[in-house]
Amino acid sequence: MALELWETGNADARFLAILIIEPEKLSKEQIAKMVSSEKFVHIADWFYSYIIKDYSDRETLRQAWMHSTDVMHGRAAWSLTSGCVARNPDILDLPALLDRIENEMPTAAPEVQWTMNSTLAQIGIKFPEYRARALAIGEKLGIYRDYPTSKGCTSPFAPIWINEMVRRQE
After folding, report:
1. What Cα–Cα distance (Å) separates residue 130 from each residue in 14, 21, 96, 137?
2. What pLDDT sits at residue 170?
3. Virtual CA dihedral for 53, 144, 11, 13, nearest 10 degrees?
4. How far apart are CA 82 and CA 92, in angstroms?
5. CA 133, 106, 73, 99: dihedral to nearest 10 degrees?
6. Minimal CB count within 10 Å: which of 20, 72, 75, 108?
C-alpha cells in the first residue's frame, strides 16, 4: 500500500507512505528510485529522516550517491554524510570532505547546497581541530550569509551556526 501511495506522486500520499512504509522491506534500488523521484525537499527530508537514515545499508547508498549526478541523490548523500559526521565520523575522511565542500558547494544545486552546508557545520561543531577551516570555508563561500532567519533561530550561515552551537556546548 505504501508503494502504491508513493506512486501517485501526490504530496499528501507520499507523506503518508513514508509513515507506513517498512524500510527494511525496500531494496536499495527501490529506495534510489524513490529518492530521485521526489523533488519537494520537505518530502525528501522526511524520507531521509524516516527511511534512509535508519536503513541498514545506508552507507552503501551514501557512497554511491556521493558520486551521482542526480540532485536528489546528492542531497540524500550529503544528509547521510552530515549524519555520519555526528554519529559515525571514523568512516569519513574529514579533510577530504572539507575540500569537496569548498570546491563543489558554490556550484552545487540549491537542494544539495543545503545538505553540504549541514555537513560543513557539523564538522565545525564536532571537531575543534577542523573548526577554523570550516569557519574559513563558510566565510569564503558566503552561502546563506543573508538567509532570513526568525528571531530566536540560528542562521544556516555556517560560521554563525558553528559558533552558536559551540557556544551552547560550553
Report:
1. 39, 38, 12, 11
2. 83
3. 20
4. 10
5. -30
6. 20
Q: Rounded distance, CA 21 to CA 118, Å?
A: 27
Q: Which three cell numbers stand for residue 126?
A: 564536532
Across the chain, which has 170 residues, the per-10-residue mean pLDDT values are 96 97 94 96 95 93 96 97 96 98 97 97 98 98 96 94 94
Q: Cα separation of 73 and 113, whole Å?
A: 12
C-alpha cell at 132: 577554523
User: Which one-letter amino acid corresponds to residue 78?
Assistant: W
The Cα–Cα gap between 80 and 65 comes to: 10
- Give the other-Cβ count within 10 Å of 10's Cβ: 12
The values of phi and psi at residue 39, to 5°, are: -105, -15
